[in-house]
Amino acid sequence: MALQEQGCLPLPALGSCGEMTAVQGTTVRQISSQSAGGPSSKRPKKQHADLALDSVTKRLLEQSAEAEQSFYQMEEQRLQAEDHRREAKHARELHMLQVLGQIFSSIATRNPVATATPNTATALNTMESTMQPGVPMSTSGQMRFGRSSHRRVRSPQSQAEWPSYHSHPQSNAGLVLERSFSLGTAARRGMDDILPLVKNIVPQLTSKKHKGQDGRIGIIGGCQEYTGAPYFAAISALKVGADVSHVFCAKAAATVIKSYSPELIVHPVLDSPNAVEEIEKWLPRLHCLVVGPGLGRDEMLLKTAKEVIEKSKARDIPIVIDADGLWLVAQQPSVIQGYKKGILTPNYMEFTQLYEAMHHEPLDSSDHQRSAMELSVAMGNLTVVLKGEDDLITDGKKVILCRQEGSGCRCGGQGDLLSGSLGVLAHWAYTSSADMTKSVNPSVVAAFGACSLTRQCNRQAFHKHWRATTTTDMIQEISSAFKKLFES
Ligand SMILES: NC(=O)C1=CN([C@@H]2O[C@H](COP(=O)(O)OP(=O)(O)OC[C@H]3O[C@@H](n4cnc5c(N)ncnc54)[C@H](OP(=O)(O)O)[C@@H]3O)[C@@H](O)[C@H]2O)[C@@H](O)CC1
Ligand SMILES: Nc1ncnc2c1ncn2[C@@H]1O[C@H](COP(=O)(O)OP(=O)(O)OP(=O)(O)O)[C@@H](O)[C@H]1O
């Protein structure tokens, strides 16, 4: 208004109105033709020109006001249309939720002792992918698929007990839902539920303990070709908080591994004729075994690894199997099949080999969760950690996703960091009371912790080193990543 009083036109109105520009053009022409007149007619012509200018300005102001008004009208109509569209979408989503609620209730009623079999799980996954979880239901952002469906279907008891999934038949049905939703928006919710359990298993640092009590970990691996992998696993175990880390490797690898770090205890025994006896001597002192990083595929080393696994099972310690150890399992599944404290950590390639070895048919790559559960069940409900864009953890009854943000840097050796860390966490999880893990499978809790930690290390190292990130850089981050995730 003030601008108009000063004779200035509102710019947006002028800019948005073609007619006005034309009027303005006329005005300019009129003014210039009038100012081209002779000196004798100066005064009357000037008065005439002033009058013309006044009327043109008035017209311009009127048109500007009209344009402004029509602009606001159009904007109001647009907003109304958007409101209608949003309301319709909201109503459709609500309807979908009601239908799903009914379906889930009927599943729970028809099958009160339902367990999360791969098939049910897959059916639910399919629904979930149709629902595109993660999309807010309303623009207010108050209601999201995972949470609202979850409220509708789970009984208060199962909700209170989650993630305890062995105790109550109804909680099993609720669990299936939890699982299906936990793969979407509530995957983060699932993470939120497991993370406190990982925190629970971390032992207190106290002056009352002696060396070794927080973990003595053994790594079976390291040969002529691969010295980095067992080192990464062993040093990661120490950095996570184990007190002692042993590496049982082939002679050719021992001096090299020792030279990387004085912290490690290195036994050059893996290719010696009495390898099993040499390693067996140490087993009573070990809390957990990690088999496979840098093991290679030499027949003799694999045979030794197999026998060491057998001896360790008899001692009831957790056994993490990674890398070439998984090759061994693919050849001879019985070596670990049915051993509840066994944890397999395949990457996708290793997973495919294992799956096909167990099922004698090609892997259906369209449903990783189902396949991972099937593999776990076929292995006797061993915990399987399928590493990838999301890490998928299952004991055949439930699937948990770890989506801790990592980075796009896939330097070799990250899996070794994971398996070494997992060794320590598995020891802590199995020596914690059931109360601490809320009766969740300790292997699952430990696996979730190790995956989160590895990914967080990857993220932190990547922030510092970008493309140059290596596993050594990630190992440097273990201390602060661990603190951030589990001690804050
Ligand atoms: N510094 C060291 O000492 C290190 C030693 N290490 C040790 O080396 C040993 C052998 O391990 P490994 O990495 O060569 O065997 P593995 O993982 O089967 O890859 C073989 C091929 O499979 C593929 N592939 C892999 N992942 C995939 C995926 N997600 N999705 C799809 N494809 C995938 C890919 O083939 P591509 O398709 O690229 O041709 C890859 O080349 C083992 O003992 C290990 O501990 C490592 O720990 C690294 C650090
Ligand atoms: N596409 C991905 N996006 C994000 N993180 C990933 C991705 N793939 C793997 N990771 C992470 O990297 C870690 C190691 O997985 P990876 O598949 O590299 O194992 P690996 O091949 O056995 O490793 P290694 O090189 O030690 O043999 C896992 O914790 C996983 O979370």
Automatic annotation (TrEMBL):
InterPro entries: CARKD, Ribokinase-like. Coiled coil: none annotated. It catalyses: (6S)-NADPHX + ATP = ADP + phosphate + NADPH + H(+); (6S)-NADHX + ATP = ADP + phosphate + NADH + H(+). ATP binds at residues 387-391, 406-415. The keyword Lyase applies. Its EC number is 4.2.1.93. One of its GO terms (molecular function) is ATP-dependent NAD(P)H-hydrate dehydratase activity. GO terms for biological process: metabolite repair; nicotinamide nucleotide metabolic process. Keywords: ATP-binding, Lyase, NAD, NADP, Nucleotide-binding, Phosphoprotein. Residues 28-49 are annotated as: Disordered. Its cofactor is Mg(2+). Residues 194-485 form the YjeF C-terminal domain. Residues 28-38 have a biased composition (Polar residues). It holds the Pfam family Carb_kinase. The keyword Phosphoprotein applies. It comes from the Eukaryota. (6S)-NADPHX binds at residues 294, 347-353, 416. It is an enzyme of class 4 (lyase). Belongs to the NnrD/CARKD family. PANTHER family: ATP-DEPENDENT (S)-NAD(P)H-HYDRATE DEHYDRATASE, ATP-DEPENDENT (S)-NAD(P)H-HYDRATE DEHYDRATASE FAMILY MEMBER. Catalyzes the dehydration of the S-form of NAD(P)HX at the expense of ATP, which is converted to ADP. Together with NAD(P)HX epimerase, which catalyzes the epimerization of the S- and R-forms, the enzyme allows the repair of both epimers of NAD(P)HX, a damaged form of NAD(P)H that is a result of enzymatic or heat-dependent hydration. This is ATP-dependent (S)-NAD(P)H-hydrate dehydratase. It comes from Oncorhynchus kisutch (Coho salmon). The lineage of its organism: Eukaryota, Metazoa, Chordata, Craniata, Vertebrata. The gene is NAXD.
